[in-house]
Every structure is written in structure tokens, then in C-alpha cells.
Amino acid sequence: MKKFKVFFSVSAALLLMSVSGLLFAPPFDLGWRFGHSTIVARNLAPNWTTALGEAATQYNAAGNLSFSWGPSHLDPPYSGHVAFEEIDFGTDFVYGIAESYNVYGNLCHLGHCNTTNLKADFGHVKVNSRHNGAYSDYKRFLVLHEFGHILGMGHSSFCDSVMGSVSCWPVANNLTSIDQALIGSWYP
Question: In its UniProt record, which GO terms are filed under biological process (predicted)?
Fold first, then answer.
């Protein structure tokens, strides 16, 4: 029944958008999933705590995901954890990246890490500390966007999606109904 509801939600949203002339591609499926529905968030980004909480609330409502706060360090255990860290990228032009550990224990871009089972066991979102003073809606967008990559969402051609490209302005700071339906179908 839940799969029917998800299918109906996505179909209805696409129908409404096509009738109104707003048909767009949902976020691209990157092909992997986070391997856990219970996620322990490690906050190593104290300037981003509010945005982390708001993003967790939105993703929790979209799918069968639950979040709890974990330790504020990068020491083991890692399984089921997502670390959020603020670092200086040395430039203003990089906003954030999403990574995971590969089987050798090295951090790498998600698309290059999990080639065997396509499940990420640990995620690592790095946000650029040069943007610590950004307004709260932008911070929420960036956390939603990078965490969307951890969950398997790629970029969308539609700027109203939190997965819109970084060239979109203004940025979307809430999950759309399409984003929610996609997460709900991947994490039922």
C-alpha cells in the first residue's frame, strides 16, 4: 500500500506540474543509498547547528528516516553515522561536499566509494567555513543539498529543488513534494 501511495504522490505531482507548464526532471538518481534508516548526526559544524536540525526534520518527514545526535568527533564507530564538519576550503567558490569511506577506510566522493553494494555506511558532509556568516535559509539549503547526495540524490535541472545546481538563485531551502516523494520511495 505504501508503494502505491508513493507512486500516486509522484504521479499526481508530475501531472499537476505538467498541467501548469512546470514539468521538470526530479533530482538525478546517483544509484546508491545510505545503508541505514536510523542516522546518527555528528555535529562538528557548530555554526551550522540550526540548519542541521531543520534539515533532519525535513528528511525525517519525507521518508522512514530517524535522526539522533551523536559525538562531536571523527573517531570510530562510524556505521550509520553522518558527520557534518566545517572546514576552510581556501576559496569562496566551493560551498560544500559529500563524501563517504571506501572499503580501505579512505574518504572519497560517494560515486567512487561504494561500487560493490552501492550502500554508504558512513557519510561525511563538509561545509565551507568561509560561509559561516551566511543567512539561515542558505545554510539550510546547503545542508539539505549535501545530505541529499548522501541519500543518493543528484542534481536537478529545476532550481526550486534543493538539489538544483549551485548556479541557481535564489536557492530552495525546503524539500519540494517531488524531493519528498523520491526520498519516501527510497526509504519506505
Answer: proteolysis
Buried b (16+ CB within 10 A) or exposed e, 51-69: bbbbbbebbeebbebebee
Cβ distance 65 to 94 under 8 Å? no
pLDDT in tens, the chain (188 residues): 544 444 444 444 443 343 334 445 678 888 888 889 999 999 999 999 999 999 999 999 998 899 999 988 888 778 899 999 999 999 988 889 998 776 666 777 765 565 566 777 888 899 999 999 888 888 999 999 999 998 988 888 888 889 987 678 888 889 999 899 999 999 98
Rounded to two decimals, what is the model's pTM?
A: 0.81
| Contact (CB, 8 A) for 55 and 12 | no
* Backbone angles phi and psi of 167, in degrees to 5: -80, -5
d(CA 174, CA 186): 19
Domains of the chain by range and CATH? 2-186 (3.40.390.10)
Closest-CA residue to 137 (of 46, 69, 62, 55): 55
DSSP structure class, residue 170: S
